Amino acid sequence: MLIAVYALAVHTPTGQLFEDDVLRAADAIAGSAEQTDALDTLDVISVPTVVVAILIIFLIGAMRRRFLLAALAVAAIVAAMVTAELIQRYGSRPILLSHGYRREDKSFPSGHTTTAMALMCGLALVVPYRVRGLAVAVSSLFAAGVGVATVTASWHRPSDTIGAGLIVVGYASAAVAVLARCGKVRPAALPSPLGRGLRAALATACAGVAVLSFAGAGVAVAVTLLDAHPGEHATAMLTAGRLLALSGSASVAAALLGLLRQVDLGIDEEGTPDVPPGLHRPAGPQRGVPRDRGGALGPGADVPGS
User: Residues 149, 183: contact at Cβ < 8 Å?
Assistant: First the structure.
């Protein structure tokens, strides 16, 4: 999927034409309040804040005695960031347009969006299952804001944010696969119907935002192609770019919730799965309690302490 997005957006004239139109539309609002807000959002992603966030994610896993889980979460974050940097630095972006607006910078994928989404995934991996939904809900809002801000600030093209999400999901899936291989993945479920319903509603909402945003981007492009008023094209193209970035971010959140659905990651040093009490009860008779052949307490059984 990553290769397909890269090929379509970067290595086709149609992809370059659309995305450079988005960049030109973003340049047209330079100095506006919305672009200033976007730059303020992007300023949150810095070396000190990222280092602190990674340390917090590792400490959450370590405090829960899931050291392998903590290490894999950090490894997935770092690997995603390094991969994005390597592709951006060494990936090719040929100029296929013979005329019109062209910008020759290599921007695929977005490093800021990769970082924000990787931190979201790392947090979702290490937190307890019962609060995973809340963690994804809060962190996905930040990740989506960063993705949209990169387009608004004219730092990145829409495909750059989608590529970032695909890289992050790939490494998150790899981390879960390693945990499964090591026997540290257990089934889990929230104890109350309300909790399970809210978790399902969150996943549905993320998927719905992804689909509706993508459809909205398509409508914005169609309006641009059919509209006879060129002066309004820039607004429609920028809207399409933002909606595609939002769709990519929401897709990552939905994929993450689907990947980790009813899954508890890691077990502590004593081998106890981290799930709410009462969900996993030992099978068979309890030690010290005699039973008859039917498995129930016999009518004349002597129970210690009676």
Answer: no
